[in-house]
Amino acid sequence: MCMDITRIDQIIDDHNAEQSSLIQILLDIQAEHHWLPKQALDRVAEKLDVPMNRIQHITTFYKAFSQVPKGRHQIHVCMGTACHVRGAQKVLDVLSDATGIKAGETDAELKFSLETVNCLGCCALGPVMVVDGEYHGNVAPAQAADVLKNYE
Amino acid sequence: MSEFVLQIDGKEVTAREGMTIVEAAKSVGIRIPTLCHHDQLEPYGACRICTVEAEANGRNQLVAACVYPAEKGMVVQTRTEKLAKIRKVLVEQMMAHAPDAPQLLELAEEYGADRDRFEKDPSFCILCGLCVRYCNEVKKKNAIGYIDRGPRREISFIPDVAGKECWDCKECFPLCPTSALQAAYVLTEALAAPPEEAAPEAGCACSCSCSGSCG
Ligand code: SF4
Ligand code: FES
């Protein structure tokens, strides 16, 4: 899973290598790779002429960025009050079993990353899980693992 | 540059436009306590220990004297009961992080702060930013910065830069009011591979599990 540096350059050029587009560039790289490899950050620092300490400050500040590899598919399980009451913990347990990882982890094949969130704002649909931005509401624990079958 | 007069602790002070309250006070020998302030650095306003009462345009407010510009006709109080209380709590909070820092011990004595008032979280850093800003602004090396946010925010060296620049500089060490910096530096040094053993040049530098065989 090596990074294509010309693709990084292209992302940077799409934003005319402007310093003010730093966060946007990082978001684009994050979206494509699901994380920010050091090599990519070095390239951004060099081409935008932004010091690395500022990049580190930003990438560690926003939760949208990851500096460790993430899976191709992001699973988010809502643990907010409403979902919790409706059995979110069971859903999480089932997903943990199915993927073999705990919340906050990524599996060795880089297929899934499992994450909990504290409220997705759609409590009426609880328990809610989101995979790659797609919402699955009212998931019974028994169905939760089936949802993952649709992702390769 | 235009000059004007303001009042600090009852003294008439002549100041120039662009001067902060701390600078104006200093010019007549009034010392306002500071921790994150440094003459060579841009005003920052992190620690708030320099809080003073300033009355201007009929409003009395609490301002950070190290960043707040002196204004014409302003009436500033640097030592009031209210300020002593504020500074005491600030010192107590900072002492939760750095209970033995000499500058804090001094302030604690002055304001009667209890170093054990708050539960200890010995990060040994009060995030004054002196080291970070000095490296950025004066040395222009950007070897050190902040990471994370909120209660988890801390300072961190950038190993690639620190490995090259810091050993012969270390000018930020004596600036630190808690001496946390020293510890952090030693830590990074310990973590970073010595230059000659650094990652092989060939292959890719990504952190995938291919151990440098791809790319
Ligand atoms: S290490 Fe010291 S100088 Fe640097 S931010 Fe922390 S307290 Fe300030
Ligand atoms: S000296 Fe003014 S805020 Fe720190």
From TrEMBL, chain B:
Annotated InterPro entries: 2Fe-2S_ferredoxin-like_sf (IPR036010), 2Fe-2S_ferredoxin-type (IPR001041), 4Fe4S_Fe-S-bd (IPR017896), 4Fe4S_Fe_S_CS (IPR017900), PSI_iron-sulfur_center (IPR050157)
Iron found in the keyword field: yes
Keywords: 4Fe-4S, Iron, Iron-sulfur, Metal-binding
Transmembrane segments: none
Domain 2Fe-2S ferredoxin-type span(s) in chain numbering: 2-82
Pfam families: Fer2_4, Fer4_7
Record CDD domains: fer2
Domain of life the protein comes from: Bacteria
Occurrences of domain 4Fe-4S ferredoxin-type (ranges): 116-149, 157-186
Name assigned to this protein: (2Fe-2S)-binding protein
Source species of the chain: Geomonas anaerohicana
